[in-house]
Amino acid sequence: MGICGNVHPRRETFWNMRPPVLIVLHGELSTPGRVAIQLRNRGLSLDVRRPRFGDDLPETLDKHSGAVIFGGPQSANDEDEVVKREIEWIGIPLKEKKPFLGICLGAQMLAKHLGARVYKHPDSHAEIGYYPIKPTAAGRELCRDWPDHVYQWHREGFDLPGKAVLLAEGDCFPNQAFSYDNLAYAMQFHMDVTHHTMCRWTTRGHERMLLPNAKPREAHFADRLQHDPACRAWFSEFIDHWLKPCEAPEASIGSHKQPQRRVSKVSLL
Question: Residue 177 in contact with residue 101, Cβ under 8 Å?
Fold first, then answer.
């Protein structure tokens, strides 16, 4: 059972036969937080890579169950070659029909890859803290009980790409979540954040709370007590949906070997 808590008992044998999920992080000390907890609770291991610090991204995901690209201080509009290569790489999970999740910067990278604009708010507003969102009809079909507030940490947003399905809307940045081809998902908000992550971000990034429309530090923690239980429950339901393609009968359960690098040796915080 380990530090991850309860594993779904009827799934444990099956999931342990699946290849790991690729985790793409942008900071030297960044962690996958609640994503790691949710995946490990289902018996999945993690293959953690940090392209900005020299890690390569795989040329195929045939040895992975899916991929998650996380947030970071970069912009999807940066001319930096690492950012450009990462945006281009997103074509691999899309082409190979693998589950893909982009969180914050990762969501903006997916939007950029699909040809949509990534932009700053016209009044330089940011979303730093908890803000309301509203699911669309398509979003409610995906998951039943959406939280009414989610944690945000960004100054840029994205237009809805062509052929994408809008799942959730916001006030300051209208497009908060979308799906593409029923396999790729973008979330502008941070369902991955843990209490430890919030402590670190609000300390090291304290200047962000001075941006227009940002919430003061004390509001982050007060709002977390109110809104995190709903966020945690929703994200668990979402991860079950996101992993459904891995359960497809045509997927060869025993034919994959685990990549021999950075598998599952990462903090959850």
Answer: no
Q: Which helix (H) or strand (E) holds 68?
A: strand 66-69
Does the pLDDT of residue 249 top 90, yes or no?
no
Kindly list the distances between the CA atom of residue 41 and the CA atoms of 6, 196, 266, in Å, as whole numbers in the listed order.
6, 19, 14
Contacts of 251 (CB under 8 A, 6+ apart): 245
**Residue 96 in tokens:** 């190979």
The helix/strand/coil state of 169 is: strand
Over residues 34-86, the pLDDT tens digits come to 999 999 999 999 999 999 999 999 999 999 999 999 999 999 999 999 999 99
User: How many CB atoms lie under 10 A from the CB of residue 257?
Assistant: 7
DSSP state of 20: P
Q: Which CATH number fits domain 2-121+156-199+235-247: 3.40.50.1000, 3.40.50.880, 3.10.20.310, 3.60.15.10?
A: 3.40.50.880
Measure CA 65 to chain center: 15
Report d(CA 60, CA 135) in Å as an integer: 33
d(CA 197, CA 189): 14
Query: What is the per-residue pLDDT across 173-190, written as a single tens digit (0 to 9) for each?
Result: 999 999 999 999 999 999
SS3 call for 56: coil
Q: Which of 268, 267, 129, 149 is closest to 206 using CA atoms?
A: 129
Task: Please give the Cα distance from 114 to 185 (Å, whole number).
Answer: 12
The answer to whether residues 78 and 105 touch, using CB atoms and an 8 Å cutoff, is no
Q: How many whole angstroms separate alpha carbon 26 and alpha carbon 71?
A: 7
